[in-house]
């Protein structure tokens, strides 16, 4: 179609860093000669999925010049700045985006991820808590929030967050397993056993649950019980290791 041909040519012009040609194509994309916002929106998405970060920045710059501001455009620009290792610019971008879209899942999660990526764990823990204040059903916020708390040497906060996650998302085996991993790492065998007993019922036959149980029994010195759990796991998985 005509629109498809314009889109293909526009992306090529952006990728080849030909801004004049890109602007001309934007004008041609709409029958009345106006810039086609839909074309820009689709183009930034395509460039982002291709990982062409310079193209993403160029397209999003054009969108801003036309006062077109969207969550998706902010999100792709953040990914682009991260891919280009422009961390300060990425931080400023998200700070600006949060003023406009304070409840956005995409923006708040990436805001917390950035602090985690930069290993600023105390800040990351606070940001993940804020994500959960808006979006209490995001598994990543519990898992990475707990990781951030633990890395910030606040294990009680990490365990508390994971317990909240087990209540909010009882079907998430990963949250249960993370809680077990942290309790076992802290030699809190009684707490681990109580959790594992529930976990085994909730996720019957799960490989990772059985292996975690075996680890727990080994730490408790119950080697025969550990072997039984490993054998059960192997039987359920057809003997695959």
Order of helices and strands: HHHHHHHHHHHHHH
- Write down the oligomeric state: single chain
**Unreliable spans:** none
**Helicity, as a percent range:** over 70%
End-to-end separation: 52 Å
Describe the largest sheet. Answer: none
Number of helices: 14
Q: Which structural class best describes the helix and strand composition? A: mainly alpha
- Could you report the average pLDDT, rounded to the nearest whole number? 85
Q: Rg from C-alpha positions? A: 24 Å
> So what's the overall shape?
elongated
Q: How many E-type strands?
A: 0
Q: Tell me the strand percentage band.
A: under 5%
Give your account of this protein's structure.
The chain is mainly α and 241 residues long. It is built from 14 helices and no strands. The radius of gyration is 24 Å and the shape is elongated. The N and C termini lie far apart (52 Å). The relative contact order is 0.05.
Write the layout of secondary structure elements.
Blueprint: H1 2-15, H2 19-28, H3 37-50, H4 53-65, H5 71-83, H6 87-100, H7 105-117, H8 121-134, H9 139-151, H10 155-168, H11 173-185, H12 189-202, H13 207-219, H14 223-236
Helix pairs in contact: 1-2, 1-3, 3-4, 3-5, 4-5, 5-6, 6-7, 7-8, 8-9, 9-10, 10-11, 11-12, 11-13, 12-13, 13-14
Which properties best describe this structure?
77% helix; 241 residues; 14 helices
In short:
With 241 residues, the protein is an all-alpha fold. It has 14 helices and no strands. The mean pLDDT is 85.
């Amino acid at each position: 179609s005509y629109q498809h041909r314009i889109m293909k040519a526009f992306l090529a012009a952006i990728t080849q860093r030909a801004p004049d040609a890109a602007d001309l194509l934007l004008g041609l994309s709409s029958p009345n000669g106006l810039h086609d916002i839909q074309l820009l929106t689709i183009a930034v998405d395509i460039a982002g999925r291709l990982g062409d970060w310079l193209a993403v920045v160029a397209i999003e710059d054009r969108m801003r010049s036309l006062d077109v501001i969207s969550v998706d455009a902010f999100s792709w620009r953040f990914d682009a700045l991260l891919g280009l290792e422009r961390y300060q610019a990425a931080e400023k971008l998200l700070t600006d985006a949060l003023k406009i879209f304070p409840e956005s899942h995409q923006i708040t999660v990436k805001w917390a991820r950035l602090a985690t990526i930069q290993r600023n764990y105390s800040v990351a823990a606070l940001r993940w808590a804020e994500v959960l204040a808006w979006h209490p059903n995001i598994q990543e916020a519990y898992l990475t929030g707990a990781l951030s708390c633990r890395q910030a040497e606040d294990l009680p906060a990490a365990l508390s967050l994971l317990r909240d996650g087990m209540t909010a998302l009882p079907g998430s085996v990963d949250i249960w397993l993370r809680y077990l991993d942290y309790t076992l790492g802290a030699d809190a065998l009684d707490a681990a056993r109580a959790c594992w007993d529930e976990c085994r019922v909730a996720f019957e036959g799960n490989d990772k649950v059985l292996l975690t149980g075996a680890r727990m029994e080994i730490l408790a010195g119950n080697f025969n019980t550990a072997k039984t759990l490993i054998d059960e796991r192997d039987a359920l998985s057809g003997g695959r290791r």
